[in-house]
Amino acid sequence: MARFGMVIDTKKCVGCMDCVVACKTENNVPEGFNRDWIVQDARGSFPTVNLEIRSERCNHCDNPPCVYCCPTGASHIHNLGGVVLVDHELCIGCKACIASCPYDARFVHPEGYVDKCTFCIHRVEEGLDPACVSVCPTYCMYFGDLEDPNSEVNKLLNSRKHHAVLPEAGTKPQIFYLE
Amino acid sequence: MDNISRRKFLKISATTISAAATLGAVGKITADVNKISGNTTKGLRKIPTFCDICFWKCGVIAYVKDGKLWKLEGNPLDPLSRGRLCPRGTGGVGSHYDPDRLKSPLIRKNNRGKEEWVAVTWDEAFDYIAQKMQDIKSKYGAESIAMFSHGIGGNFLKHTLKAFGTNNFAAPSFAQCRGPRDVGFKLTFGEDVSSPERTDIKNSKCLVLIGYHLGENMHNSQVQEFSEAIKKGASIIVVDPRFSIAASKAKYYLPIKPGTDLALILAWMNVIVNENLYDREYIEKYGFGFEQFKAEISNYTPEWAYPETGIEPDLIRNTAYEMAKYKPATLVHPGRHVTWYGDDTQRSRAIALLNALLGSWGRKGGFYTPVSMDLPDYPYPSYPKPTKPKVDNPDLKYPFAIETVTNGIREATISGNPYPVKGWFVYATNLIHALPNEDETIRAIQNLDLLVVIDVIPSEIAGWADVVLPESIYLERYDDLNVEWFREPFISLRQPVVDSPNDQKPNWWIAKKLAEKLELSEFYPWENIEDYLEYRLSAGGYDFEELKKTGIIKGSPQPIYFETGVPIEFPTPSGKIEFYSLQLAKAGFDPVPKYKKPEEGPPGYFRLLYGRAPVHSFSRTQTNRILMDMYNENEVWINKFIADRLGLKSGDYVKLKNQDGVVSNKIKVKATERIRPDCVYIVHGFGHNSKMLKFAYKKGASDSQLIKRYVIDPLMGGTGMNVNFVTIEMEV
Fold first, then answer.
1. Which residues pair with B577 in a beta bridge?
2. ipTM for this model
């Protein structure tokens, strides 16, 4: 069984937001909303500063509270790669999932349903990378099967120090940031 | 032969190429010229073209779904984008759908600057413009019309105006941007840095960025190569008063005091020379005046530079050693927007000399030699010979200006000397934001009999125009071919992928139509742009139909380094790298750069610095709804300690007031550890005051509005603009 995840090299990322723009055009994300975003995490004091730049989105968690709390089954785990998706037809817009997500990855689409990153499953099913990964001018993003020991994502995780965002939330996020 | 080297090109272009006139029948322009496809075919079409959100000209694949523009991706065949666009390129979709676009030709109704218009037909607009132009010509001469432009789209308008008889064409990209760099390098190596920059970032083992915020400025190929250099483990040295994105990638970050970069560069050279760390063989072979240079820089020790720059002597030494360690694959990047303090040509020359010491010019990991395709120009009739010299640089007061000086034209327009300037054409550049001191620009405008602005969106300069002409955006038009100078030779095509939504027209159509009104039809022997493109491509032996399908034609690879066969030549007066410049000495300038202390601001003031955001191009993208969803107003970066002292926190609104009392629009505070306490920083392009830019109106503050003062670079006329100081006014 494939388990899709992302590995993002914070050393190469310049935070240009091309991933955010590409997601917007690929998925027709409406004005005023984005499915992914950039965090510039600066620590220290001038001039000794450490800056980590992260392209963030839904973590497609292995232990997804948004799925567990959904009263209609709209939020669900897709049969391909464990991707967390929302069935727009089933969603009643109750926002329980929004409240449960530690990453603030979800929003209510103007058409009334809850929306978020899909890992561009429509592209992945055609053998393509998600839009954000495929456009990145710094080549800092990698998408693949975390269960496959030979996948590039696994090779990177085995060779580089990395971390997830808010692992303490216990949701088992599937996006990892190389340090 | 489909390729020529840059050097050969320089030789060719030095001789006059006389154009044979082959006149064809001038036909009627088809009424629906703008309807390029009328194609609302169901399904997906992929059409190659090249981008125009900035000037980099990246190859694009446009996806059109059921006749509507869906998304833009990079063209994998394109050497510039290598299949990946920057965020602005990806977001170009928003420029097509922008509701604030100019929609029809406009003629001013009331006083200039009131932004009150009458919508007119194209014919009425051209009649108005042509009449005014003929009046100016008969009263003052054709040279009294000047054109300001940005980007490849201005080519056809320039052609029409040259045919009309003027020779005054300028772009802010010289005197307000890269001019000092190109002059500084030309004085040293005999060649400039050119655009795209000939910097071999991807092969650099040590990359030095001085105030060059790569990653925030998104010059696509440069950023891609930057990432590649990071991946390969290049040692990165960043010099910047602000902890930039690039600084976060650096092994060494030097938080320099603004305005003192030249002191640091001189101290680096002092260490490298005194400790014999330079490329001795390279300099012995190719250097001129090295001993005099050595003597001139002997006093600029790291200890001397410390109090100037705030950079500790050990850090200066260690970074000099780092550069020397990786030479000649050490690239001290010359930057791009370098009009900072008015001594910018000399600072750029110092950067050139530092690279010369490291032997990086012409070498892998340093500066490569760009190559291009050999494509003849269209054989137009000869232009009428202007009877007056260009207006911008009388008596060559800027002796090393290698391009026309925008502010020189502005000055002549105000003073009427050396002769009056009465007409301005402004193509795709918002002069109010591009030139310093907007009062002077407005004063110049008051002296005009005609101001025509041609653009895709409104702007502050359009607000001052007599006539505004709406252009189709790049995705809706053909343009001139891009015959690029780059790592490998190629030609790229801009072609329409969707129709313009309203009465916008492509620049070539506007230029041709205007020429007809001016009775200059013989200068347009072609009927349609496609005839022009077909002619040029056939003349070079290339297939237009094929190019429409691929978007890119590549030539065969050529050597780009000295070590792989590029002839080693330095087209300077001495034929060598000029460590000591006799031509500068002769003109009364320092033959080796000398440091002068920058002027300090009044007590309690902060130096105003400005730069780029990766999701915006100048002041031209703040109505693009997609890009505005990324970054919709700028912030003023204030050092956290200072902000605390002022009782400010991130998200508070303030106004900035400069030393001359100019007050900005309100702007959000970003209290941050990422900037020195003696300066503040804002992203350029915001703070629009044109009411026609509905979505951008009054969002954020404009650095240009606060850049009242500027210092002119006496070598080439560039305007140093980092010389303004502001206080922070609480917004209530």
1. B287
2. 0.97
